[in-house]
Amino acid sequence: MEQMVNLTIDNVKVSVPAGTTVLEAAKQAGINIPTLCYLKDVNAIGACRMCVVNAGGRALQAACVLPVSEGMNVKTNTPQIRQYRKNLLELVLSAHEQKCLSCIRSTNCELQKLCRELGVENGDKYAGKQNHYDIDDVSPSIVRDNNKCILCRRCVAVCSKVQNVGVIGAVNRGFVTAIESPWNLKLADMPCINCGQCITACPVGALYEKDETKKVWDLIADDSKHVVVQPAPAVRAALGEEFGLPMGTSVTGKLAAALRRMGFDKVFDTDFGADLTIMEEATELVNRVKNNGVLPMITSCSPGWIKFCETYYPDFIPNLSSCKSPHEMLGAIIKSYYAEKANIDPKNIAVVSVMPCTAKKFEADREELAGTGYPDVDAVITTRELARMIKEAGIDFVNLPDEDFDDLCGESTGAAVIFGATGGVMEAALRTAYEVITGKTLEDVNFTAVRGIEGIKEATVQVGDLPVSVAVAHSTGAASKLLDMVRSGEKNYTFIEVMACPGGCVTGGGQPIVSSQDKMTCDPRVERAKALYGEDLSKPKRKSHENAEIKKLYDEFLGEPNGHKAHELLHTHYIKREKYTK
Amino acid sequence: MPDNKDKYEQLNQVIAELKDQPGALMPVLQRAQGIFGCVPMDVQKIIAEGLGVTLSEVYGVATFYSQFRLEPNGKYTISVCLGTACYVKGSQKVLDRLSEELKTPVGKTSPDGLFTLNATRCLGACGLAPVMTINDEVYGRLVPDDIPGILAKYREQA
Fold first, then answer.
1. Tally of CB atoms within 10 A around A487
2. Which end of chain B has fewer CB atoms within 10 angstroms, the N or the C?
3. Cis omega before residue B27 (within 30°)?
């Protein structure tokens, strides 16, 4: 039995398990101790001192790293503490570029919120020398603006500890300390995987996606362009949060309606691309198993994971599925099949992908992803960028009617919807692979063993006579651990799913940002996944190969999965990358 | 360069020797600086790979401690005293002039690799304030206009 510890926080008695911090215990007493550098499960270093409390010691102590002890009497709200926190904020502001009106994080900034809540009256109280930094906007995915950085190190922690990448860190010391790459190299010159987890960890506006909203508005306004849009599965599970809807609200119908009102010529669905991916990937898996191909096969939907593999685990490149990711597949189909059907020259078609992901921006620039001779995808915007565009267009999102995606590439099954959650691609592939291999109908389509937020999930699935052992890893840190075990021979699998972001795409680097305070009481990985699994459950068809538009696509255009035409349009190859090119 | 190859072998030996110790990064960096005279990028990359830590971490430690040098020292190391006595006698102006003449910020080495410019604390020669040293030579009672002549002397020698 867990040992419980009794303590008093602001006259409220609480009982919490031993090892709990005062910060967490206070939450149970209904007290939000302010934080800046703290990020649950990622960063607890007591550096910013915002969370100081009086626990009877000779000095105030940081609650985020202070474990509870029996009989402890904690005060979190005394005149001394309030003044202390206010002074800290005033000092942070003395080195902060206070351009809040034009800041991308305005109204969603933890520093701004604290300054208001704690009553900071004069942001220039300690005005003096400031450091000035060049903005690093060379990466196709991520922009870093150190003029806004408050040195909390949440980005550093997520990059090194969660993702096992570590391309940024604190350099120099004292007043000139900065979060940078070594030798002030640009992120684009570092082995950054573009996952954008640093962005969703940042409390302020020091990290954000490379904005492509202007490019997309220009495409829409260009009469010579036929602009086709496609949103990813995970977008519908989170976009509503940007408009005040509760976390976990599925907004699929409103999403389609909003895209149509923004002026896109066709509103297709990456979920269709996901069903198509399953057709190709499940077939590839079956072929690899039958023909003694390289196993375990590893999924290739996550471009952050792909770059991670190419850079850090190049010996696993032959294991990667040759399937393009769903939006790239759909892009290639739009510029071939759809172009033919609609009688439009593919050079006049622009494909815009709405993704929960910043690495997709990098992926879309990959030269080899041009199945028709034209780039499969012309622009990638994140869920956050789409929300900004919807607001800019004056669309009353919350009151939109529910609409459907356009025919031809708009239908999708439940298998496609769950791509957005960790384990989803695995589950979708198993639903189809089972029926392809056994020729029988799969009665229970729910492979619950691969669901959930455990870092590495394993299962053995009985496919007819064949026991198939599978594993799912989310976060490249977890993927490293899994691949190390496969490499050493300690583990052996047939099929592995890897998503670069912890939680999968629902908590991708392009998704709405959840504050560290909110993350203490709810887990967006869980809440957003619920929206997707709920949608899966409500779909009449839950297996990719049952999608009627997909069947039609193969019958009329592609031929067989993994056939010649499919290979030309839907498959790709990978390259070993050096970590440093400079 | 056989000489350099030997240095990299020494570095790899140091890494092999210390890599299983907790907190090996600092001693490895110190020994590397002993071998190379500084810890440039390629040396830091080898240390990062060898110890299984990120380059960011290595660079972070190397820039946190002022004892680590990222680039080799010049042939002549100039140390300008910014102790109290020298400072009130105008050593900051001497330092600024040096930085201007050498086109080199304080703490860095001139583009021609000849001079490394440092600011130091009290050198213990307050009676000669403001004071600087170039390698082992001491220069006292300086005014900024002395600087071009002094530098010229060393450039001729080099």
1. 12
2. N
3. no
- Cα B24–Cα B27–Cα B28 angle in degrees, nearest 5: 75
Residues B36, B69: contact at Cβ < 8 Å? no
Please give the tally of structural domains in chain B: 2
Q: pLDDT digit string (tens) for A127-162?
A: 999 999 999 999 999 999 999 999 999 999 999 999
DSSP one-letter string for A370-398: -TTSS-S-SEEEEHHHHHHHHHHTT--GG
pLDDT of residue A2: 79
- Told to judge if A284 belongs to the known catalytic residues of this protein, a careful annotator would answer yes
Residues B102 and B47 in one domain: no
Chain A residues with beta carbon closer than 8 angstroms to that of B64: 170-173
Gyration radius from chain B CA atoms: 19
Whether domain A4-77 has CATH 3.10.20.740: yes
Predicted confidence (pLDDT) per residue in A282-322, tens digit: 999 999 999 999 999 999 999 999 999 999 999 999 999 99
Tokens encoding A7: 């303590």
Please give the model's pTM, rounded to 2 decimal places. 0.93
pLDDT per position as a tens digit, A167-204: 999 999 999 999 999 999 999 999 999 999 999 999 99
Cα torsion A534, A539, A544, A550: sign:
negative
DSSP character string of B33-102 = HHHHSS--HHHHHHHHHHHT--HHHHHHHHHHSTT--SS---SEEEEEE-SHHHHHTTHHHHHHHHHHHH
Say if the Cβ atoms of A172 and B63 lie within 8 Å: yes
Q: Which of B24, B43, B64 is the last residue of a domain?
A: B64
B70 occurs within a structural domain? no
The mean pLDDT value for A509-536 works out to 97
A212 part of the active site:
no
CA distance B54 to chain A (A): 6
Residues of B in contact with A168 (CB under 8 A): 56
CA atoms of A414 and A424, how far apart (whole Å):
10
Give the Cα separation of A544 and A530 in Å (integer): 20
Please indicate, yes or no, if residue B41 is contained in any of the structural domains: yes
Smallest CA-to-CA distance from A144 within A131, A130, A133 is with A133
* CATH domain A142-211 topology: Alpha-Beta Plaits (3.30.70)
**Mean of the pLDDT values across residues A239-267?**
98
The verdict on residue B124 lying in a domain is yes
In the beta sheet, which residues pair with residue A438? none
Encoding tokens for residue A423?
């384990």
pLDDT value of position A581: 82
pLDDT category of residue B67 using cuts at 50, 70 and 90? confident
Q: Find, among A17, A5, A9, A35, the residue nearest to A519 by Cα.
A: A35
Alpha-carbon distance values, A541 to A28, A80, A270, A280, A548 (Å): 43, 61, 16, 18, 10
Looking at B64, B87, B113, the residue that finishes a domain is: B64
Element housing A52 (H / E): strand A52-53
Residue ranges making up the domain that contains B112 = 76-157
CA separation for the pair A165, A188 (Å, rounded): 14
According to the model, what pLDDT value does residue A1 have?
63
Q: What is the C-alpha to C-alpha distance for residues B68 and A521, in angstroms, rounded to an integer?
A: 44
Q: What's the rounded Cα separation, in Å, for the pair A382 and A210? A: 9
